[in-house]
Amino acid sequence: MNLTKKNMLIISGLALSLAAVPSLAQVAPMPTKPAKQEPNYTPAPKQQPKKADPAQSQPQPKPDGMQTYGGDAQTLPDIPYLKLAVRNKEGRIQRLHQLPDIAALRSNPTVGPKTIEYMMPFVYERRNKFEQKIINNLDLYWGLTGTLIEGLDMSNMKDLGQVAEMLKPLVDKTTFTQEMVNHGILSRVQGGLNRKIVNEYKKEITDEIQVLSDDGGLNDVMRFVMNDSILESKITYNEMIAEAMGNISELIEKAGLTSKEAQALVAYQQEIDLTKVVENIKAIHVFDAEFRKLPFMDGIAILEAMREMRENPELSPAIHTINVLHAGKTAPKDGMTFGYKTQDELIAEREAKQKKKQELKQDD
């Protein structure tokens, strides 16, 4: 369906405004009605000018650490980092299978293992929060990730607004990065760099979508924005399903389910290594297709039984210590910034080593 000029402008503005949010974690309601006409303006009564207070006219010093970022509000340190947008052989950007905010910690040259030590309890806490979101809104999640977003007519402002509202229960009030800043785990500089790395990755994807599309890519950009806004919920759900697959027969018994649909799940029981969920995603999707045939209350009962069977219901076994080190990121040199090598430098080093090995072989 062709978009009207008015709708194209609205969608373009909405996509840009959502893309400006660090992790697209907050979804603004779509405009469904024209703005109300402004009331007639009545000027306020004129007041006599007051003499300026000399103390107030002097510039006030900012408290330490109270600078903010965003746009040009603060210039972040110019430190090289590995970009999240990596292209495959066809030249397309490879989509991340983990939360970009977490992937960015590895790229972020100001974040090291010590920061992660303090961060991990909050990572478990946040995952517990998202598991509760999934359980409390399972029917909503199934609908959105089934056909609602993929089948949405982006030219229909009313439907667009309704789906945007439906996303909200599955999205947190703050992004992962901002929550870590709020807890004091990441400094403002660390958080600012993390946001920069994440925003750059998402912008490259939306740019690519528009370049590859025949119609400017507005529909596809909006779908990306919507799907990305619930990415953390998707990751949480997939890992809960992977965990449930390993002992589904016991979970069905514990939940007291006797339906044909519930019993059919036993045939798909499979132990999944929770450190390799992405590698097993096809098997997880096959199981999930059968799992979604259950009444959603039965699905909730299974997920709740699964959590109860853990040693600690609030600690997901799918969460593991975040590894932030790589070949180009070494021990701190100045107390904060890690010794860092760019991708080109690493490639040059690797090629030099290979060349030296070949020369040594020839000498032998």
Helix content percent band:
40-55%
Strand content: under 5%
Helix/strand order: HHHHHHHHHHHHHHEEH
Biggest β-sheet: count, sense, barrel? Answer: 2 strands, antiparallel
Mean of pLDDT: 80
Query: For the largest beta sheet, what order do the strands appear in spatially?
Result: 1-2
Please state the structural category: mainly alpha
Low-confidence stretches: 15-47, 54-73
Total helices: the number is 15
List keywords for this structure.
364 residues; mainly alpha; two-stranded antiparallel ribbon; 2 strands; 2% strand
Question: How would you describe the overall organization of this protein?
Answer:
- The chain is an all-alpha fold and 364 residues long.
- Among the domains are: 72-229, no CATH class; 231-309, no CATH class.
- It contains 15 helices and two strands.
- The protein has helices spanning 5-19, 54-57, 100-107, 113-136, 138-148, 157-167, 176-182, 188-212, 218-229, 231-245, 248-255, 260-264, 281-291, 296-308, 343-363, and strands spanning 329-332, 338-340.
- A two-stranded antiparallel sheet has the order 1-2.
- β1 and β2 (338-340) form a beta hairpin.
- α7 (176-182) runs antiparallel to α8 (188-212) and α11 crosses α14.
- The protein is globular.
Summarize the structure in short:
This protein is 52% helix and 2% strand. It is mainly alpha-helical and 364 residues long.
Write the layout of secondary structure elements.
Blueprint: H1 5-19, H2 54-57, H3 100-107, H4 113-136, H5 138-148, H6 157-167, H7 176-182, H8 188-212, H9 218-229, H10 231-245, H11 248-255, H12 260-264, H13 281-291, H14 296-308, E1 329-332, E2 338-340, H15 343-363
Antiparallel strand pairs: 1-2
